[in-house]
Amino acid sequence: MKKVAVITGGASGIGYAIAEKFVKNNIQTMLVGRNKAKLREATCELGKLADWILCDLTQLDEIPGTVQKIIDKFGRIDILVNNAGVHLKKAMTEVTDKEYQDVILTNQTSVFCLTRSVAGFMQEQEGGCILNISSMASIYGLPYVIAYTASKSAIEGMTRAMAVELSPLGIRVNCIAPGFIRTNMSSVALDKDPERKKKVLSRTPLGRLGNPEEVAHAAYFLVSDEASFITGVVLPVDGGNSIGF
Ligand code: NAI
Known about the structure:
By secondary structure, the chain is α/β, with parallel strands linked by helices. It has eight helices and seven strands, in the order βαβαβαβαβαβαααβ. Helix 1 (13-24) packs across helix 8 (212-223), helix 3 packs parallel to helix 4 and helix 4 (97-124) runs parallel beside helix 5. It starts with a strand and ends in an 8-residue tail after the last strand.
């Protein structure tokens, strides 16, 4: 039986690379996103094992209905990748309450709502894998990303909290902390700030930015049966950035 995966924000960047890896490995892959045109284009490129469903994850009350539609279509969800995220780079003293809450809503609260909903079905089917995506911002202090840092630190704590509750039910929960990976999000954050980019590269022992495909390889491993005794971990995929001096 084919496994069924759900990837949020799967039409671009890291999410798209994970979708590509899953499809290549015969996993039925459902992209969840908010931009119809981008979702259509991505599924066209990915081929017949990919499908898409529209859902703005900030609309929390639409999440259970979206999950139900996926279950109605495929009968099960074996893998959930909580990849969608937004970034906000601004001095902490300038960030408004609304801007702060908006980042938390997308990057943290929607992850809880979606995982709660999917985990209910995984519990009924007696197994599944959840993969969260955090960031270097949760490992060390990065200036000008206060809300992003709060949300990604929460993701790592939630990974451990989810793992202890869900693993006894056969649901493994893990997290990848990507380093600086070449995508639209990182281009916005780094290309306009050469000093920051220089600093990133100087403390990355492998001396370069990562590619989305390098995160996808690790994601595929963590949700595969090869990782059957791994739960509750945060795996940096960062070229050594988190241990660089
Ligand atoms: P990206 O901007 O290409 O992908 C983010 C995706 O999330 C987009 O497809 C976007 O449409 C979707 N999304 C955002 N808000 C949404 C909403 N309300 N509802 C539905 N979909 C929504 O960026 P990238 O780089 O691929 O990021 C993917 C994940 O990896 C994010 O969680 C990001 O924080 C994380 N990450 C990225 C790093 C990098 O260097 N690129 C480093 C560390 C973490």
